[in-house]
UniProtKB/TrEMBL annotation:
Residue intervals of the EAL domain: 140-390
Gene3D superfamilies the record matches: 3.40.50.2300, EAL domain
Domain Response regulatory: 9-128
GO annotation, biological process: phosphorelay signal transduction system
Annotated InterPro entries: CheY-like_superfamily (IPR011006), Cyclic-di-GMP_PDE-like (IPR050706), EAL_dom (IPR001633), EAL_sf (IPR035919), Sig_transdc_resp-reg_receiver (IPR001789)
The protein's name: Diguanylate cyclase/phosphodiesterase (GGDEF & EAL domains) with PAS/PAC sensor(S)
Pfam family, one: EAL
SUPFAM superfamilies: CheY-like (SSF52172), EAL domain-like (SSF141868)
Length: 399
């Protein structure tokens, strides 16, 4: 932390005064001032009055409910970071983290008791005066007319997340990710604007992504690089009968490049039968269907039965904690075994630590992707990655 800057402020909600005192000492070492609250209603009042950069809170304190406190923080539009002191089963803490994220809170990975200074330092590595308060949660940054102009001006572009084959250790495919090259705000990630799209704009975006991705795939093939191309489709897309003709036309124009349509597993479809029909027609055409974020939704096995699935993508929340949580490791291994038994590819998402590559291969995952191997990149950089040394071979981390 920058010693010349004013210290950050943390509000601590904890019913054990000894644990709170120990945490205050550790935070002071890291240059963070603390104010201690023992009751939830005091915390919310202090947050509204002082606007701290950090709230540290336990999940279980007396007869009060930590989940309810997260909801109250979201209701008062708290824009700082939240760190949970779990003190409970890891599974319960992770549910609370995900709930906080769903409520719009900026959640840090929870910290087990007793707290260790090194882990606390790692969690708070970006905290300090330079940390912006951020916009109020729930307030859209852009209006629908701005998005309409973005389509007209062709400001929505693609970057590609590389995917690697664990058997060959080479680049095997890319996933198309949309970006908004905003003339004033710069390059915007999907989370900044996708939630604002109308249904009609969503369908227009699918067409735009398909056209751009197919054009890039055609250029790669002309250069002698044949990559699998993945793109996300929504339940609305899959329920639209014209998706079949649209994809067929784009696919043939790109010379039949391997195309994988990814369906987010946590998404719901009101008409499973119609969605299955569209997916089946795409499959009969020679295209592939993948289930993205596998394991975090409610209908995983039903989807495998209803849809002609060629690929499962293990959610990054399991892969990222592979070495920390035996339950996460067991889930990844089980999904990989399921994939082998069904004869389909299993892609591990969110690979950041190359040390996880060996167990992923041992479990039976066939492909990997993540920032630890390569970050999303413009189409112009994909050829250089394909022709250069593979991050897997260079790291020597597999095998």
């Amino acid at each position: 932390m920058n010693a010349s800057s004013s210290p950050a402020l943390a509000m601590v909600l904890e019913d054990d005064p000894d644990a709170a005192a120990a945490l205050a000492v550790q935070l002071r070492v890291l240059g963070v001032e603390t104010r201690y609250c023992r009751h939830a209603h005091h915390l919310v009042g202090e947050v509204l009055a002082r606007r701290p950069q950090l709230v540290v809170m336990g999940l279980a304190f007396g007869d009060q409910d930590g989940i309810a406190v997260l909801r109250r923080l979201a209701e008062c539009r708290y824009a700082g970071k939240v760190l949970l002191l779990s003190g409970v089963e890891r599974k319960v803490a992770r549910i609370a983290e995900r709930l906080g994220e769903a409520l719009g809170l900026d959640m840090l990975a929870s910290l087990d008791k007793p707290m260790r200074l090194a882990e606390l330092r790692q969690r708070l590595s970006g905290l300090g005066q330079a940390l912006p308060a951020g916009p109020e949660k729930g307030r859209p940054l852009f209006q629908h007319d701005e998005l309409e102009r973005a389509f007209e001006r062709q400001e929505l572009i693609l970057h590609y997340q590389p995917q690697f084959d664990l058997a060959t250790r080479r680049l095997s495919g890319v996933e198309a990710l949309v970006r908004w090259a905003h003339p004033e705000a710069g390059m915007l990630a999907p989370g900044d604007f996708l939630p604002l799209l109308t249904s009609a704009q969503g369908r227009l975006l699918t067409r735009r992504v398909l056209q751009l991705a197919m054009a890039d795939a055609a250029r790669w093939r002309e250069a002698g690089v044949n990559l699998s191309l993945s793109m996300n489709v929504t339940p609305d897309d899959l329920l639209c009968p014209e998706l079949v003709s649209l994809v067929r036309a784009g696919w043939h124009s790109a010379g039949g490049a391997p195309l994988v349509l990814e369906i987010t597993e946590s998404s719901s479809m009101e008409d499973e039968l119609l969605g299955s029909e569209v997916a089946t027609r795409l499959h009969l055409t020679g295209l592939e269907v993948s289930v993205d974020d596998f394991g975090v939704g409610f209908s995983s096995l039903a989807r495998l039965q209803l849809l002609p699935i060629s690929e499962l993508k293990v959610d990054r929340s399991f892969v990222s904690r592979l070495h920390e949580d035996v339950q996460d490791a067991a889930i990844v291994e089980a999904v990989a075994l399921l994939g082998r038994r069904l004869g389909i590819r299993v892609v591990a998402e969110g690979v950041e630590d190359l040390a996880c590559l060996a167990p992923l291969e041992r479990f039976g995952c066939t492909h990997v992707q993540g920032f630890g191997l390569a970050r999303p990149m413009p189409a112009s950089e994909v050829l250089a990655l394909a022709e250069g040394p593979s991050p897997l071979a260079r790291a020597g981390a597999v095998g």
